[in-house]
Amino acid sequence: MATSPTNPSSRAVGTVAIRWHGHALELLDQRLLPVDEHWITLEGASSVAQCIRDMVVRGAPAIGISAAYGVALAARHAGGGDWKAEIKQAIRELAASRPTAVNLFWALQRMEQVFHECHSLDEAVGRLASEAVRIHEEDLAANLAMADHALGVIRPDKPISVLTHCNTGALATGGYGTALGVIRRLHEENMLQTVYADETRPWLQGSRLTAWELAQEGIPVTLNADGAAAAILADGHVRWVVVGADRITANGDVANKIGTYSLAVLARHHKVGFMVVAPSSTVDMSLASGQDIPIEEREGTEIREIRGVPLAPAGVKVFNPVFDVTPASLIDAIVTEKGVVHNPNITGMRELFG
Ligand code: MRU
């Protein structure tokens, strides 16, 4: 059997949420943060798919990386009979875990391409593990490059405050983060006054994950209810709203965590910059506009209760789309590792992504 490639998380910057050990994948259970830091060990693609569905791991790039490791595990633990059918089934199962973040399908496509080139199970075990590690490492490198590009756009001449939504940090990526990577870089350059972190109802990625991640590293964070964002922007202290993305279409529309669209409207109204930071693995040039993006709806219990404690009348009807689409016209810059698309539209997107 091929030896397993090294664990990219050992080179990560900041918090680590994904650890690869060759025979097993370890995921930090993000459902339990910030109270418990509990790791789950997975040895099969089905359990990886389950963890993606249940949000043990979440955030577009982290979902793609985990799915890639899931395919590597499927090869590693294939029964030896029809190993090709087993790996194909694993890819199908992983692809069905969550619908909106295109990074999942992008990563699976890369894994599938390598799988098709393999002539034996032994070869597949080695090459699929290497490809998954490469996807993980490339994401970390992309985050560092995006932070450089974003600073070139923001050009801070004195410390500034920014507002962010959801969690786009090391927990959501291969390390460092997309929007949160930019915020990290501002802090490293002594150019950050504070980050306003939307709590991000209903799953609370902002309060449970972003505030935790930033506090761990001593980065100044101020947590606010989502509904406070308008008042914060009206106050005039925030220069940029910086967010991540789950899918960016050919015309520059962006799907991201529910509530992002309202922030973009607010930012435009208050003449605050609106920046989307995402790796090119989030770009889906096959979709013409945001209207074509499948938007995940999750269970009503996420809104009706928190950890079993009721917050609403039992059984009340709930609308729980977990992403929304921000039209390109409200976005000032889309920052990727390949460069920046200013005032995105189909021409600008084509120039960078073909
Ligand atoms: O439902 P989640 O937590 O997976 O949603 C995450 C987001 O919407 C993030 O903003 C996005 O994936 C970018 S993560 C770098």
Automatic annotation (TrEMBL):
- EC code(s) of this entry: 5.3.1.23
Residues that bind substrate: R58, G59, A60, R98, Q205, N256, K257
Query: Which terms are listed as keywords in the entry?
Result: Amino-acid biosynthesis, Isomerase, Methionine biosynthesis
Q: Which GO terms describe its molecular function?
A: S-methyl-5-thioribose-1-phosphate isomerase activity
Q: Which residues form the active site?
A: D246
Q: Where is this site: Transition state stabilizer?
A: C166
* Annotated catalysed reactions: 5-(methylsulfanyl)-alpha-D-ribose 1-phosphate = 5-(methylsulfanyl)-D-ribulose 1-phosphate
**SUPFAM superfamilies, A to Z:** NagB/RpiA/CoA transferase-like (SSF100950)
Q: Name one Pfam family in it.
A: IF-2B
Q: Which InterPro entries does the annotation name?
A: IF-2B-related (IPR000649), IF-M1Pi (IPR005251), IF_2B-like_C (IPR042529), Initiation_fac_2B_a/b/d (IPR011559), M1Pi_N (IPR027363), NagB/RpiA_transferase-like (IPR037171)
Question: What pathway does this protein act in?
Answer: Amino-acid biosynthesis; L-methionine biosynthesis via salvage pathway; L-methionine from S-methyl-5-thio-alpha-D-ribose 1-phosphate: step 1/6
Asked whether the UniProt record includes Isomerase among its keywords, one would answer yes
Taxonomically, the superkingdom here is Bacteria
Q: What does this protein do?
A: Catalyzes the interconversion of methylthioribose-1-phosphate (MTR-1-P) into methylthioribulose-1-phosphate (MTRu-1-P).
> What does the similarity note say?
Belongs to the EIF-2B alpha/beta/delta subunits family. MtnA subfamily.
Q: What is this protein called?
A: Methylthioribose-1-phosphate isomerase
